[in-house]
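**User:** Here is a favour to ask of a fellow structure person. Please take any protein you like and set down a full record of it. No explanation is needed for now; the record alone will do.

**Assistant:**
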Amino acid sequence: MRWLYLSKINASYLIIHSGKLVGEDCDGNLNKCLSPFALCRDGVCRCNMLMEPTTDGLCRAPFEAEIHQSCEEKFCVSSTVCVNDVCECPDDMREITSDEYWFDPCKARRCVNANHSLGKCSSYYIQCTVY
């Protein structure tokens, strides 16, 4: 899937750019590296020197374990908990979908409330919670 993002130049002019995941080819003038803490270096999106790449094209701190990975020697990433030595979502939460992550990628969460969903209103995604 190719991710797009918008740059607002003024009230009437938007530019659509293609976004790249860590490890993908990029051009600093045309593409944005989508993961927080990633930048386009030598034509490839790379994590900054304090971070390391994840299996899904993002960046994380080297002392963090991803969801579904062992937490014996590392801390679980944001919003996950260590259960039987594996990082998982808490009981009242579920794993975030790709669309939910990219709705706001600066929030480094991997789990959301079980009743959380993205709704669509006039072609724009909005966050919805079912009560």
Q: What stands out?
A: The helical segments are 98-103. The CA atoms of residues 96 and 110 lie 5 Å apart. The chain is about 5% helix and 45% strand. The chain has two domains: 1-50, 63-131.
